[in-house]
Amino acid sequence: MTKSDISLPRIALLATGGTIAGQAGDASKTAGYKAGVVGVDKLLDAVPALTQVAQIHAEQVASIDSKDMSTALWLTLAARVNALLEEDDIDGVVITHGTDTLEETAYLLHLTVKSEKPVVLTAAMRPSTALSADGPLNLLNAVTLAAHDGAAGQGVLVAFNNQIHSARDVTKTSTYAVDAFRTPEFGALGWVQDGRVDFQRGVVRRHTVGSQFDLPAALPAVEIVTSYAGASRTAIDAFVAAGVKGLVVAGTGNGSIHAALQQALADAVKQGVAVVRSSRVGSGHVMRNGAAPDDALGSVSAGTLNPYKARVLLMLSIAAGITDATALQQLFDTY
For the Asparaginase/glutaminase C-terminal domain, which residue ranges apply (predicted)? Predict the structure, then answer.
């Protein structure tokens, strides 16, 4: 039995560009394409089955390659999501996005969306013109997920390659594979396939309506530095001289930091720069006072957040006026 349109949930689809809207002159090519050139109407035309899942309200918010995502666009997108979710006739939001910075955008929304209604991001690893393009099925699954009652209250989700991930934990793990997104430490929340949605676990950390963060007028300058063999303090000193408000260190192993960087970071803290230790490894957690003593440095442990998501949380924290290391550590332990 086919549902009538009036009984279908109403989902807002916000398009931002990316590979899912990419186009190449040769259907056999999955690289060398131009991202973000296909409009949202054509994305919808490629998935006629969507009419059986939801009523779609579509908007083109941006048409970019997500490698060029900006903090200004983050704030514009988050504000539009919040505005749409306040409308009684909108039941959820789906965002099409490039894969390169999807996890960062998703986490920013996870902390700033003020609704329990579903918000789902999706993307593609192959442009829309490619043989076996993965975008249409990912879009269908994302809308199916956003229209499902079980997605409410789970924070911002990512639907990709039939899996459901939490925005907090998901990360891109491949440069080419269609299963590029994974949650390394904890695994997917569930799956969506052929119209069925199945959650195997829920989201534990605070988010969305439970988050204390509001959208600021602007986000402060927070940069990422990496520890590696033979590292020097040059980049840290340059960032501090440029007036950054925070630094995230992608440390080795358990967030360990080269001795030359430790001294530079300690000097940065004395000048009022907030410092967070994360890891470049890709999974696991950074223990407080582990390989590099946080108490001595005045730094904060990112826990299980990777450097890019730690940067998002640090920017929102500083924008909210929270810069004390003890208070920051509590936030990183909470979110």
Answer: 222-332
